[in-house]
Amino acid sequence: MTMDATLSSHLQELRRGTVVVASLTVLRTPGYGYSLLETLSAAGFEVEANTLYPLLRRLESQGLLTSSWNTDEARPRKFYRTTEQGDAIAAALRDEWTRLDRAVTDLDTPAETVSGSDK
User: Fold this and answer.
1) Has residue 93 been placed in a domain?
2) Which of 1, 33, 60, 90 is the most buried (most CB within 10 A)?
3) What pTM did the predictor assign?
């Protein structure tokens, strides 16, 4: 496996979980799939429709999203919104993301020599 392929594989794995957090965060305000794709893309989350729609269905089946059809327009659209449980899960995931980010930053920061410990 080349370095590019290895990096690509690890980046895909890293992004997979972030799309869940981002989707649950965005859908605190009701939205439909295509608008979610656009919002995520504008924020730097590159996700394809064939990945996002199954994710939305899975999150709904887990009770983290609810959906309803808007038939007011010529083309019906399915709107999604987080449930109370989805909001709680999103908050917990964001807290964990912050904790992990801090931990990785700490690992990347050279430790200061503690007085007397280098003898």
Assistant:
1) yes
2) 90
3) 0.82
